[in-house]
Amino acid sequence: MKKVMNKPVDYVDEMLDGLCAAHPRYFTQPEKRVIARTGGAVPGKVGIVTGGGSGHLPIFTGYIGPGLLDAAAIGDVFASPSSEQMASAMRHADGGAGVLRLYGNYGGDVMNFDMAGETLEMEDIASTTVLLADDVASAPPSEAAKRRGVAGMVFAFKAAGARAEERGDLAEVTAAAQKTADACRSIGFALTPCIVPQAGKPTFTIGEDEMEMGMGIHGEPGIWRDKLKPADAIADEMIDRLLEDSGVGRGERVSLLVNSLGATPLEELYIVFRRLRSRLSDKGIDIVSPLVGRYATSMEMAGVTLTLCRLDSEIEHLLAAPCDCPFWRN
Amino acid sequence: MKKVMNKPVDYVDEMLDGLCAAHPRYFTQPEKRVIARTGGAVPGKVGIVTGGGSGHLPIFTGYIGPGLLDAAAIGDVFASPSSEQMASAMRHADGGAGVLRLYGNYGGDVMNFDMAGETLEMEDIASTTVLLADDVASAPPSEAAKRRGVAGMVFAFKAAGARAEERGDLAEVTAAAQKTADACRSIGFALTPCIVPQAGKPTFTIGEDEMEMGMGIHGEPGIWRDKLKPADAIADEMIDRLLEDSGVGRGERVSLLVNSLGATPLEELYIVFRRLRSRLSDKGIDIVSPLVGRYATSMEMAGVTLTLCRLDSEIEHLLAAPCDCPFWRN
Question: Does the keyword Transferase apply (chains A, B) (predicted)?
Fold first, then answer.
């Protein structure tokens, strides 16, 4: 595992420069570590802001665009942005209809985004918060509010973005985000760690023939570590855990996100998807518009996360609504 | 490096099953290892067929769709499909206006596709061939016809597909493909190997602190192997080699494809793109619609390929034309 980079200290800033240079139609960097839509906030539309540590592309920046997000504050790799950067992102997203903060449940991000919200309140910009807490491996159902946010975020971005694009008010956009966040359950497994540039060493160690089920996207400990199992057995365990946790059953409709953490190739995601589809078909559950690819990564970590999004007619409509960004295709 | 798979012998077939199941709107598998557009050939349109070994997603299958390809024959990992599979793909692509075979310059693929063309000739289906030979590291300019085809293929797919969508005839579609193939130059470097499932071991060995410039996508030997250099130095060497080989200079317009071979994360592609943009700007060369991502991979290999596509008004128009597939966005 080797990094293509210059000085580790410049990793994030050079990455953001390149990202904005490659996608000028979508976003710009009006201030350091603050990414906003090209052309600025949309008057009269609820703004949607996200943010968190770097190292998870396309999360966060890649989902800024019409029908999706308006701005993001970006921290160092796996580290929270500052509350000032978050407040700035909120100002850039503000079109006069309020701002939703939509992000993952990590301590530093929550503290800083809450402070940013207080700052904006003094500037008479109304804002709300919806936290993603979809990683079922990170806490039991009885403590679901402690769960970390992972790839389910992508579904929530899409649904909230669509509701805002339809000119829902702040309460309506917040409700769509919360409903979608509540509809998502995720679990992942890791095969190899990644390297945080400024640390220069792997985030964890794991045997050459081992996997860890339930590991978090920053290397947080999982549920079990054992020999690498066949893809079908892994897929079965993941989907069964999500079905049990969510209560989704026969006759329901779901979307799935089969997501590589980075190094695991598309070929293997499709092998996993094949089994998931067969298993859900056996259970009488329909898959609608699955996503298979790299939507929320940990740089070069090998592993896969699976997100189940329980659909109702509203969420299904919002996920299918038009949008335009480099990393979600409708 | 660990694979998420079941039996190695089932890797390709399970992958193709999952791929078609995930994207039913775009393609189906009418015969084993033959992927064709959902809904069949388009009457009156020139069909475009590609093919080659598995292990390079989204190449080949991922580029089937309106404005792009019509069918593909898929071999084992890094191995040619059979001439029968290629002939079948051509029949599925045939809308009565002839078929273009558009693929990379590898011995097995050329032999089998030529045989497939002869088979189709006996069935009164006209066909032509355009080979991609864009990898400048694989042979000197004096032997350019010996060069291997790599990610430049994606530009040729797009241009030929657009010309066919405009209802160009077989000669016109072939000319557009040839012109775009001729306009492309690529070079890559590798940091780590990948594992071919049925071999079960890495395709090559390389030191923990080493890179190999010019290595082929199947691990073919490159130009030099040395300590891993900073991203900017690598970017400079790659673009300078491509500029020299192509003769592209001040005042010209190019597109770039900065492509991860698999494990190298998007973050690092953007760091490379940042430098390329700055260097081309200094030389007075404009970059139009760059592509940054995973367009032609070698499963979990770490490394990057760079493709330079020299534009004229025709190629620029064809690359910008509408299309619809899971892996190219216009």
Answer: yes
Q: Which of B15, B16, B270 sits opposite A18 (nearest CB)?
A: B270
Where in the sequence is the domain holding A231, given as residue range(s)? 184-318
Lookup result for tokens 């700055």: B278
pLDDT in tens, B71-122: 999 999 999 999 999 999 999 999 999 999 999 999 999 999 999 999 999 9
User: What is the predicted pLDDT for the residue at A328?
Assistant: 86
Q: What is the pLDDT of residue A1?
A: 58
Q: Which of B1, B4, B272 sits opposite A271 (nearest CB)?
A: B4
Of B125, B124, B121, B151, nearest to B136 (Cα)? B151
Assess A281–B contact: CB distance below 8 Å, yes or no: no
Q: Does residue A282 sit at the B interface (CB-CB below 8 Å)?
A: no
Read off the tokens for B222: 């490159």
pLDDT-flagged residues of chain A (< 70): 1
> Which burial class, exposed, middle or buried, applies to A278 when counting CB atoms under 10 A from its CB (0-12, 13-18, 19+)?
middle
Tell me: do A191 and A272 sit in the same domain. yes
Question: Looking at the structure, do residues A232 and A189 belong to the same domain, yes or no?
Answer: yes
* Residue A188 and residue A178 in one domain: no
| Count of structural domains, chain B | 2
* Chain A partners within 8 Å of B17 (Cβ): 270, 274
pLDDT tens-digit map of B17-55: 999 999 999 999 999 999 999 999 999 999 999 999 999
Of the candidates A88, A116, A283, A301, which has an alpha carbon nearest to the alpha carbon of residue A193?
A301
Judged by CB atoms closer than 8 Å, whether chains meet at A21 and B272 is answered as no
B92 is catalytic: no
Domain boundary at A182, A197, A219, which?
Answer: A182
Pairing of strands A253-260, A302-310: antiparallel
Report how far apart, in Å, the C-alpha atoms of B215 and of each of B78, B280, B296 are.
15, 24, 14
Is residue B1 over pLDDT 70?
A: no
Do the chains contact at A274 and B21, CB–CB below 8 Å? yes
CB contact under 8 A, B209 and A2: yes
B141 and B281 fall within a common domain: no
Statement to judge: residues A201 and A173 lie in one domain: no
Convert the pLDDT of each residue in A118-150 to its tens digit. 999 999 999 999 999 999 999 999 999 999 999
Q: Is A305 on the interface with B (CB under 8 A)?
A: no
Whether the CB of A266 is below 8 Å from some CB of chain B: the reply is yes
* CATH code (residue B196): 3.30.1180.20
Same domain, A174 and A196: no
Give yes or no: B317 in active site.
no
Is B43 among the domain residues?
yes
**Min Cα–Cα distance to chain A from B120, Å:** 31
Is there a cis peptide before residue B58, judged by omega within 30 degrees of 0? yes
